[in-house]
Write a structure and sequence with these properties.
single chain; alpha+beta; D-Maltodextrin-Binding Protein, domain 2; Dipeptide-binding Protein, domain 1; Dipeptide-binding Protein, domain 3; 3 domains; nine-stranded mixed sheet; four-stranded mixed sheet; 21 strands; globular; SBP_5; signal; peptide transmembrane transporter activity
Length: 529
Amino acid sequence: MMFRMIAIVAGLGLALAAPAEAQTPRKGGTIRMTAPYGSSFTSLDIHTTQRAQDEIYAKALHRSLYIWDSAEGKPVPELAKEAVVSGGGLVYTFKLRDDAYFHNGRKMTADDVIWSYNRIMDGSKAYPGARYVRIIEGAAAVEKGQAKEISGLKKIDDFTVEMKLTEKVDPAFYLFTALTSIYPADEAVKDSFIQHPIGLGPFKFVEHVPGSRIVMERWDRFYKPGKPYADKVIVSVMGEAAARDVAFRNKEIDTSVLGPAQYVAYQADPNLKGTIAEVAEVFTRYMGINPAFKPFADKRVRQAINYAIDTDLIINKLVKGKAYRATSWLPLTSTAYDKAMKPYPYDPAKARQLLAEAGYPSGFEFEWTTSQNESWGLPIVAAVIPMLDKVGIKAKVKQVEAAVLSEVVRSGDYQAFIYSQQTGPDPQAALKCFHSSTPQSACNYMNFKNAEFDKIIDEAGQADDTAKRTQLLQKANALLYDEAPVWFFNYNKAVMAVQPWLHGVQLNATELTHQNVEDLWVDETSPAK
């Protein structure tokens, strides 16, 4: 089955243009996925890593309270069967599944949910998922070491949990990612857990060959009847686009993320153009700027960088149109995106004027940390450097591995970096990354602090009216545009080649490589029986 799929998130929903599949899913076979964002996985402990690379395997191995439904364009209950809302929208009482078994055969209970969230809030570990769990009352106190347990979590019985929130948000948008996976409390405290993780997902861990692959096999006690379809999932590390291309053409892998050059090549190839799946993702690519580095402390310098770069030229020539121009932080696919906003125009003269006003008429020099990523890494940095040079700003490149870059970003050990960050699906959660109460290690990577911004976000968090909340979030997004804590580069158009024998691929706008693998199946034409 050859196909071309395009998804656009409009408003709250996801519109799909894809042929309907009438075939009955086949049981058995092996699904061969790729991890395309670096030369390794960071950890087998998904609580510790925010990299999209690691969540690819974690979607098969683990489960959270909610899960992303690509057809609906929103998170839906998963380990939670239902939620009853009370307390003016601040109290959620979750009825949990009583048929979810960990891969060691033990049934999940409310204790595992509470233990997992308390673990994630351990401030000494700086787990990235803390940014999501922090919406629970008392979570911040645990993070700061002021309390041992989250006060806003209460066990009613083995399969009922009460959760009090600090603001009026939908917890579904916070508790669906693998960063908030529910671990088995008794097993996860053991040292062996990190080498041999145990989850609730449709596939159980078999082996990890560092720098090569993770192998998982079907979990027969998975709680969705008849699923998963496949017997095995192999996630192979393939950070090099050329290697993925060869493997895909040789039918050695079932999925392959396409970079800009391959996107053009596959579209032009009659044998491959029908394999393309694409979606407008909720990711913003940007250059992060450290305000502790003196020139970057001045807003005019940060604005000058945005004026100095011909962003449209880079998107057209280097990214080959596989992106959408960024105006501010929230992407086109966000429910709070403001269509009236216009991006920074290319204006080197304005950049020079702002630099002179800020006291840098001759410019300055800085170090720019980057990975080799072809869509938002070294090739982009190389194209930007001469543009900055024209206005007197000199950039020295510091190249690091993708896994190292994610740690550099979280630790603040940089003058500038280039990155791709999830900026949805919930606009409030995305913008909260710039709130001064959000630690750098969670997602406030630029260590942004602005009292007016905090006030707007806090007000949005207490707003009952959706329209009022959206208006406030748009105001906060406009303030970020003016403050320019980053160079606003682009919003990603994700493109993945899918072999014709792999069925059930979801157009996931939160990250195309993150598939609910229990819904994938391979037909008998797959070379991997």
